[in-house]
Amino acid sequence: MAKEKEIDKIKEIIDSIRPYINMDGGDIQFIKYEDNIVYVHITGACVNCSYLDVTIQTGLYETLKSEIPEIKEVINCEI
User: Fold this and answer.
1) Containing domain of residue 68, as a range?
2) pLDDT tens digits, 30-76
3) For residue range 9-28, what is the model confidence (pLDDT) as tens digits?
4) Would you say residue 1 has pLDDT above 70?
5) Do the Cβ atoms of 40 and 60 come closer than 8 Å?
6) Phi, psi of 46 (to 5 degrees)
7) Residue 52 C-beta-side C-alpha neighbours within 13 Å
8) Which long-range contacts (CB under 8 A, 24 or more apart) does 14-20 make?
9) Total-model pTM
10) Would you tell me how many other CB atoms lie within 10 Å of the CB of residue 71?
């Protein structure tokens, strides 16, 4: 899969997960995709949530990995 198509797919998946994060008072923003790592920025109530790592690893990472097997990791970063 070409990198541009991968990025489009990543954004599509993030958009599909966003409503669930919004329901908990948070939001998620795609930052970049580099070296098979997806960088996102989590904001709002989710920043201090004890389930943030679970959301990133089991929710976002597993969903992305099932669609784009090359993805190695998802990192929540500050912008």
Assistant:
1) 3-76
2) 999 999 999 999 998 888 888 888 888 888 999 999 999 999 999 99
3) 999 999 999 998 999 899 99
4) no
5) yes
6) -70, -20
7) 18
8) 14/40, 14/60, 17/59, 17/60, 17/63, 20/59
9) 0.89
10) 18
Angle at 65 between CA 64 and CA 68, to 5 degrees: 80
Amino acid residing at 58: T
The angle at the Cα of 31, spanning 27 to 36, to the nearest 5 degrees, equals 120
| CATH code of 42's domain | 3.30.300.130
CA distances from 39 to 10, 11 (A): 10, 11
| Residue 35 one-letter amino acid | D
Are 33 and 10 a contacting pair, CB within 8 Å? Answer: yes
- Domain total of the chain: 1
Residue carrying the six token digits 């993805």? 71
